[in-house]
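Hey all, quick one. A colleague (J.T.) asked me to put the S-adenosylmethionine job into the tracker so the inputs and the structure tokens live in one place instead of scattered across chat threads. No bug as far as I know, just bookkeeping. Sequence used:
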Amino acid sequence: MQKIPTSDGSFTYYSEQFSENYHSLHGAKSESNLVYIEALRKLFEQTGKTEICVFEVGFGSGLNALLAFEFAKNNHISLFYFSVEKYPIEENILLSETDSALYQKIIKSKWNVKAEIDAGLFLLKIKTDIIDFEFDRNPDVIFYDAFSPETQPELWTRELFTKLFHSLNSPGILSTYSSKGTVKQALRSAGFIVNRLPGPQGKRHILYAYKNSAEV
Ligand SMILES: C[S@@+](CC[C@H](N)C(=O)[O-])C[C@H]1O[C@@H](n2cnc3c(N)ncnc32)[C@H](O)[C@@H]1O
């Protein structure tokens, strides 16, 4: 696992196992903000909910989790964030002395145990394969952040998206960085209404997939 700087000053990782970066080299934080945190913002602004549940596929470095908790804290949202990860990165690779207290808590929280990261901010990191995972709660937003459809075609299927569609609250949004035609098609056939949005630097489009309405 290699830690790599990206164009906006934030870091990503390179997985030798999958020969793929965890985020865009044009800016890990910028990409996470646009693809995932903007979906959370949209749900929050359009529903007015102050208790929100987010589910993430691929916890990875915890960057999406960190940004979601920062957003929740700044907007007085009570957040339950649960995330599945099949191949956790070791704590000592992720953490450095300069990391924020919030990030330290996120990374040091135990696998498979619910942790209160800050007042009203809950994290449950689950070490499992998304294919085997069974939901026991319903998210409002899903951050779909597996490796690419080229690398992991088994994680971008109609079958898997159908499971996610049924788990999602209504209204709800699934956001993902891939706008590949086959991904759009699989999401649509699972029941989602799919919108293509402008992507971050270096990426033309991203997808927001809605449950039951074109907008939340
Ligand atoms: C693009 S990276 C995710 C980046 C992460 N969201 C972040 O903020 O750093 C994809 C992640 O999906 C994980 N993954 C791959 N296959 C998986 C599976 N079958 N089930 C759960 N997680 C998986 C990888 O180990 C990796 O951490």
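Adding what we noticed when we looked at it: The two ends are 38 Å apart (CA to CA). The mean pLDDT is 94.
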